[in-house]
Amino acid sequence: MATIHVKTESGFECDINEMVLDDMEVLDYLVAIDDGDSTKYPKLLAKILTPEAKKALYDYVRTEDGRVPYAALSPEISDIIHSIKNGKN
């Protein structure tokens, strides 16, 4: 399985299966997000990240009181999306 290694600007890292680039649903979610529909983020994350990577991402931005703030998660998701679009390794 070929993977794309993703590292966000803040330092979160994970590997994503390269096959997500050949999934029409992923493209649909990316287009919707580009059009401003942030409600597609959870579905996109479920398609591109393993459950373990998603949990690691949430834990990475989790606050001391246990919340996963959208404001902290959004830039991480954007960096991951840009990495996927660019096919970074």
Topology of helices and strands:
Elements: E1 3-7, E2 13-17, H1 24-34, H2 41-48, H3 51-61, H4 70-86
Antiparallel strand pairs: 1-2
Helix pairs in contact: 1-2
Descriptive labels:
89 residues; mainly alpha; two-stranded antiparallel sheet; 4 helices; 11% strand; globular
Kindly describe this structure.
The protein is mainly α and 89 residues long. It has one domain (3-86). It contains four helices and two strands, in the order ββαααα. The chain has helices spanning 24-34, 41-48, 51-61, 70-86; strands at 3-7, 13-17. Strands 1-2 form a two-stranded antiparallel ribbon. It is globular, with a radius of gyration of 12 Å. The model has no long low-confidence stretch (mean pLDDT 90).
